[in-house]
Amino acid sequence: MTGYRQILAVPGMASLLGVSFLARTTITAVVMALTMHVVLRLNMSYVAAGSVAAALTAGLALGGPLLGRMIDRRGLRTVLLVTVVVQAVFWLSVPVLPYRALLGAAFAAGLLMVPAQPVTRQAIAAMTTAEQRRAAFALESVQGELSYMVGPAVVILCAAKVSPGVVAWGLGAAIVAGGTAIALLNPPLRAEDEAGAGAVGRPPRREWLGVGMIAVLTMAFGTTTLLSGVDLAIVATLEEAGQVSWAAVVLAVFGLTSVAGGLIYGALPRPLPAWLLLGLLGLVTIPAGLADDWPWLCVAVVGTGLFTAPTLSAVTDAVSRLAPAGVRGEATGLQSSAQSAGFALGSPIVGVTIDASVPAGGFAAAGLAGLAAALTGCLLSRRRPSPRPPTPARRESARRTDATHVP
């Protein structure tokens, strides 16, 4: 654990992870809060609740690169101010909005969600050395797993005690508090030797959004497609066995083993390629469908859990290495968008498979989706060397070359 102590000893790192955990935990609970509001307060169907969740997710997917680009150009505090105000207005309005207005407002709230996760990743890349980065991103992945375990559970517990409207107000207050705390902390998003990256102009997308970056984004999409599908397959398997009440236990085992896997991976002496980790994640997920009751399912998801956080960590590390400092916000935003799209599409894809076959087919579909993304990422990564981040001298040389060819 010496490596992790060194990471936490980096000035500002412990406070960044603490504040980020508050913000991310509340953000992971927004879908559950809106679902319970639509079902319990508006007395509408789960299909209607799913439509609101889909609108929010679509906004999140589109908003990632938009907010990242704004951070690159306008700075962190400006973006946080805008998003915090939008979230405050949205969550104060949720209890009084009619359903159709809620659909549009949910999309806008997703589009301008407080960018806690991308900002944390940018700050980690800026605050750590190349040797420290893998362990730091492993901690970030563990933080994400813990937030997904805590956030929705707290909302469900609160909804059982108070009205969904009060839960919405409380959640909105927590999101605003998290975003405000990040703004007050104002972590650096560029290392000291990258401070002048903005002054030389943004590199064109063709210089950094090449085959290597597309490979990593494909794997980011594939990872969350798999994870979203596994969650649904777990519930379907237990429902068929008449044991759906044990789903929380299985998901807790899944989450805890992911935390353990992330900590183990961060302590390894050498990194592993993201495509290899994702491929192993897909392979160990497929046989989980052989479990037919909750004790065996707890055992079956251990393998999937152990590779979850390491895969997410490796993908994040790869994005940080491939993105030049001047566009790191946009690059991490694209990663968040790819992961949001994977979460949105994973459940429907696996759901169709389960309906057409058996719950075990859900694990197979999720695992095969991960394997397909890993294979694609591997082939794209080996197609040609990943582009090096362009230097100001290289960009100036390219501009002069282009100018000499102008007729």
UniProtKB/TrEMBL annotation:
The keyword RNA-binding appears for this protein: no
Record keyword Transmembrane present: yes
Transmembrane segments: 21-40, 46-68, 75-93, 166-187, 208-238, 244-265, 272-288, 360-380
Region (Disordered): 382-407
Bias-annotated ranges (Basic and acidic residues): 393-407
Pfam family for this entry, one: MFS_1
InterPro entries: MFS, MFS_trans_sf
Keywords: Membrane, Transmembrane, Transmembrane helix
GO MF terms, alphabetically ordered: transmembrane transporter activity
Name of the protein: MFS transporter
Naturally occurring in which organism (per UniProt): Streptomyces acidicola
